[in-house]
Amino acid sequence: MTRVRPRSLLQVVLMGFVLVLMPLGGMIWHDSRALEHLSQLTSEEMERAVRDTRRATLLSNLAVDLERTLRRYAVLGDNRILASYQQQLTHYRELLAEHQTSIPNAPVYGQLGDLLGWLDSLQDLTRAKVESTSIRFEELDLASTELEMATRSQVDEHLLKVRLVIDELMKEIWWVSGLVAVLSLLLILLFTYLIIHPVRQIESRILSLGAGIEPDQKPVDGPAELVLLGERILWLHDKLKELEQQKYQFLRHVSHELKTPLAVLREGADLLSEQLVGPLNPDQQEICLMLEQNSRRLQTLIERLLDFNRLSQQEEFERVPVALRPLLTELCAEYRLAIESKEVKVHLPETDLVLQTDPYRLRLIVDNLFSNAVSYGAQGGQIWIRYGQGEQESWLEVANEGHTIPQDERERIFEPFEQGSIARQGLLKGSGMGLSIARESAISLGGELSLVDDAQAPVCFRLTLK
After folding, report:
1. pLDDT digits (tens, 9 = 90+) for 132-186
2. Which one, of 428, 432, 430, lies nearest residue 417 by Cα?
3. Nearest Cα to 58, choosing from 87, 101, 88, 103?
4. Per-chain mean pLDDT for the chain
5. Distance between CA atoms of 223 and 230, rounded to whole angstroms?
6. Measured between alpha carbons, how far is 274 from 288 in angstroms, rounded to an integer?
7. Is the whole model's pTM more than 0.90, yes or no?
8. 84-118 burial, b if ≥16 CB within 10 A, otherwise e?
9. Beta-carbon neighbour count of residue 402 at 10 Å?
10. Which residues are CB-contacts of 24 (< 8 A; sequence separation ≥ 6)?
11. Most buried residue, 11, 44, 364, 389, by CB count within 10 Å?
12. How far is Cα 213 from Cα 192, in angstroms, rounded to an integer?
């Protein structure tokens, strides 16, 4: 099935905002409806409670007024008092009927009905005089009080129901809020993934590009802008790879093409120095010496360029056992003339150490470090070569007496064609490639080459191999 993919990053962001706001909007609508219902219910119940309580109190007061009016009528016999009594009795019946509609379950209604019939029969003056002190008036007061208490009890029950409804609504609001929070969080995580995932893919390609590793060729799974950015990174990788190949090819061709005329120059300079074509005066011999020195310098530079090119292009190599002491003895023999001319004393370890590594790269590292120690070391100074092996790594140090390398130059001297402020001693000048090739070789072996502080020597280079 074809995956549905947002067309643009803007669509992803807008869709994320809309989908996250939809549950929040639904929650707000639900909570507003619930609060509206709760407000209406509370208002109605409060009005009903006030109305029923006032009516029950009014019925109690009206019962007392009926008793007083009837006794006045029994004493005075005035028909106007009788008319007032009849109005009060009618009003009492109406209020009682209304109260019974609002609170229908009070058991006192039967007794009040009998008492109303009795009060209705007292409209006759003779009967009113007889019953004006009747005990049934006390029964009417007690019934009115009981009705008032039943009303209050009923009001309390209604208020309790309102509280239960409020509790249920609050629980419902909390559940809805929790559900909306979880849903919103899931949507946020989803759209965060939809944005972060392609960004991570692009970041991985950029890191691969910087590390020189072939990046993933699959299209970026995300919005169109990020997909296009991923394609541009692949295009950039292809272009950089093409430029890298052109650079290596250029170095290879230039180095190869320079070797032939250089050989002719050196041969011609040697012939002139040997005076095979005729005697030379002192000025001509000095010029021949300059030709020899600079031709050797040019040859060294070409060899370093070839080494650098070879290291950059050779990604795979075979690790074999390499003994360090024979390698160091061989280097000392090669640099014997330079060592004797500067009266340098070389200290080699007594024991041997065998490393599982690439012989060519290891020799490049040790050769460059030893050459630097001889060239930059002090006249009549000492060179210490130490090595050892731990549980997880092996190390080799080349230290020499001489000028301490300034702190601000300790990293710059490892860059190609960079030389420190300390002058190289000897016939040949440095090319600025030795330490760069040595560090590249160390990194390719999975190790590290750095300049470290040493208590015995002012300058100490340390090679660490895992």
Report:
1. 788 888 888 888 888 888 888 888 888 888 888 888 888 888 888 888 888 888 8
2. 432
3. 88
4. 80
5. 11
6. 10
7. no
8. ebeebbeebeeebeebeeebeebebbeebeebbeb
9. 20
10. 180, 184
11. 364
12. 28
